[in-house]
Amino acid sequence: MHRIRIGATAALLGSLLTTNNSYADSTSVNDFAQLDSNADGKIAWHEYAARRPVSGRIHPRRIFDNVDKNLDGFIDRQEYLAMKSRASH
Q: Residues of the signal sequence (predicted)?
């Protein structure tokens, strides 16, 4: 699958995954924990999709795949925090 390489994508992703403008680590960890519904330390597509129905201009699966940098099918805490960092800049 092709990766989205647009700077605006990170900003859009950040706005989809957070309900406030705080990018503090504690907020990011709490956001991650809410998405990681089975508390296994990684966000699977089905966990993400349950919280992010299709809406807006970019399909949630494309966003998920863009954040999953190591292509293992999951968003781990490090990938999530990296995405939040990109979205805050």
A: 1-24
